[in-house]
Amino acid sequence: MKLTTKGRYGLRAVIDLAMYAKTEPVSLSDVAERQNISISYLEQLIAKLKKAGIVQSTRGAQGGYSLAKEPEEVSVGEILRVLEGSLSPVDCSAVDGEGETECSASNFCVTKYVWKRINDSINDTVNNMFLSELLEESEKVKSDAIKVEPGC
Amino acid sequence: MKLTTKGRYGLRAVIDLAMYAKTEPVSLSDVAERQNISISYLEQLIAKLKKAGIVQSTRGAQGGYSLAKEPEEVSVGEILRVLEGSLSPVDCSAVDGEGETECSASNFCVTKYVWKRINDSINDTVNNMFLSELLEESEKVKSDAIKVEPGC
DNA sequence: ATTAAATCGCAGTAAATTACTAGGAAATAA
DNA sequence: TTATTTCCTAGTAATTTACTGCGATTTAAT
Fold this sequence. Notes:
The structure is a homodimer.
Chain A: H1 5-20, H2 28-35, H3 39-51, E1 55-58, E2 64-67, H4 76-84, H5 93-96, H6 106-127, H7 131-141
Helix pairs in contact in A: 1-2, 1-3, 1-4, 4-6
Chain A binds a DNA duplex through residues 4-6, 27-29, 38, 40-41, 43-44, 46-47, 50, 57-65.
């Protein structure tokens, strides 16, 4: 039940763009340095975000990336799903929403009920958190930032 | 963000015990056959559940396992945490509740806010689902059980 | 007393996934 | 023309997952 570095780093990169690419695009090397993430790894993550229409790029020197939408239009769920795939705790079409398959033993189906409830609660949370909210939140905590936690 | 087979199989095993070990303990080979899980793998999972006080065992022939508590006293969260470790989407003490560390860059801390909200919503859900509820639910759906989904 | 059925415990291992790195092509501002 | 940047694909070491195997111990039934 862990997010990978794709989701963790990718979300940080998007937040970084939201904060620093307001007027001009910022280069990945800037983001990479600020966020302490390798450039070539970031390139792979940002490629997915671009393909999904979350960020946009301008090529060539002095180019870089910026958000493709307003911060209030980009949900955390959208970002994480692009980077991690489905956030469902199991790969089961009946849980993810596609298809209406049932399982063979009765308690298989009961677990499906469990997975669906977990899935729904995760989605409710991430689909209703928008970048704009995170930017506001970052204003609040900016002052008392002290120590890096490895997992964050 | 996926549960492993430990959590998936283990929960199924506990539900199986709740359904079939009401008067006498049931052997792991019975559980394994009903749930289509290898015995030796199940042994490892059940060992954790026993250590955590969720199931109890009687050794020797005609022995087996049964629940150590009433179904209304065992939450899905308890079971999954024993098998999977923390359900937090990141390993960050500030998210898991231990310690009050802050992160170095301001947007590191914003992601912490995100992880905490996801963590809370998962925990709210699983800590408030009890085995008793699942048993009731399994009565409902028992009749129209048809097909096995690989991920379930 | 012996046997068969079970739990218990630990070690090993193939396959998959993760978290990167490497190298180079193409575009563009200066 | 050159430096800076995005873009694209492939490879790979380390870790994790999902098991299997073996053997010891306990105990009910014969």
